Target: Arginine--tRNA ligase
Amino acid sequence: MIEKIKKEIKEAIEQKFEIDSIVIEEPKKGVADIAIPLFAFAKLWKTSPMQVYDQFSKIVMEHQQVDKIEFMNGFLNIYLERQKLSEAILKEILEKKEHYGYQDVGHGEPVVMDYSSPNIAKSFGIGHLRSTMIGNALNHIYTKCGYHTVSVNHLGDWGTQFGKMIVAYQKWGNEEAVRKNSIAELQKLYVRFHDEEHQDPSLEKQARHVFSRLESNDETYFELWKWFKEESLREFMEMYDLLGVTFDSYDGESFYNDKMDAVVEELEQKGLLRVDEGATIVDLGQDLPPALIKKSDGATLYITRDIAAIFYRQRTYKANKFLYIVGNEQQLHFKQLKAVTDLMGYHFDIVHANFGLVMIDGKKMSTRGGKFKRLEDVIKKAIDESKKAITEKNPDLKNQDKVAKAVGVGAIIYNDLKNEKHLNVDFNLENMLKFEGQTGPYLQYSSVRIESILKENTLDLSNIDTTFYQEDHYFEIIKQLSQFPHVILKSMEENAPNLIARYIMGLAQGFNSFYGKQRINVENEQHKNANLYFIQMIQIVINEGLRLLGIEPLKEM
Ligand code: ARG
Model:
């Protein structure tokens, strides 16, 4: 709502003076609600800021929601009609509830979001976890902005490594062991393959041969591959269950096996292919290394499958916008994907929403060789720790397991999403599980606190005195509430869930300091109702913010 007022004032002045460069600022707390710097116009019109102020003031005052204005240090300061504005903002939230903040800027346009995408027969890595959490949040955020999202888990289930896997399994594998420890066992075989390759270089050739048979649908190899995939997926699904994440499609790389010939043909037709030492490549000019489309033995590559995938997605989902939530280390790959499809004459809107590494004690976190065998164990540990904390704080709580899961998982998600995604993330379970500080549990706890106040008191909406909202400690938070739609929009435009993460943190902190100052259950009924109404609207926004991030809001904890 305040964004709307800012825009209206800006447009009114710009129209009147036929300019287009009015800057609208939000001054620091307590100064004014809105400020317009006047220096630039004074300079332009060769006059004083005071003169400009006089010119602008009439138009600004015409705005319904403006209470008063003043000239201060070269700025035109605007104070808004606090009471009416507060009523309007809170009413909007009350009416829209969790739909508050929805805005149809996408008009149902499809956006394909590619995230998580772990590799079959390999453990679910920390990078895949980041991709899953960021992707899931962006999915919610885009949906909230009126886009039609399609979430795709582009499983890494194809490539020469499966030739190696199959050879390794046939030489040293044990069915029983794979059934029992699936991914761990498969990974062991893969490691062994590489160890023995040093002694026996012919292994590499065998693997290539097997993969090329797999690419041409050899039945025995296909069955083995299928089995590896099933075993791996079973483990991945446990992870998605923990995180509460689902996908619209699990079409992985293998899905494009029969769709790559068409790509190669089209590249050929458009004269883009060149054979270089037996390999088939596309030159991408000065700035990028060529894209390798086929190896000399005819095997396709990661990028070949991504090119086939983007065409398939365009056709199937009628999409032109494609978001890839993948780590920083694949920047070159996505630049090449964009460059190849551009050369082919398509101008897809390809966004590589890249992210950094996860660090433990300053070192890159890796599940291999680390403290934990599997990432799932890390998440389970977070849940266990939350359970301990909860049983200590609230021994009578029902559904302790369910709450512990929401808190433990929420802590990991918040810790990841609170910073800009391209930066590295610190992973410290102890810190992220704390009930104070910039943590998920702190946010959930703030909402639960409001919940318990609301449970003890009944709100009577028909008996409210809204004059209290003019006081700073209310109005500052009400202004914050009115920013929610704007924050959502920005986080969509910048693919930055951290904006929402930071925003709800500010709101929760605002609530907690308000609560430290202001008694809720006051004598005056009308004041009390104003308080209850106010904190209930805060809760709606915190909860919806949490939901957008993929964190479960709680009623008790
Ligand atoms: N499986 C890949 C990896 O683990 C990520 C795939 C990302 N998506 C894509 N369309 N390339 O590195």
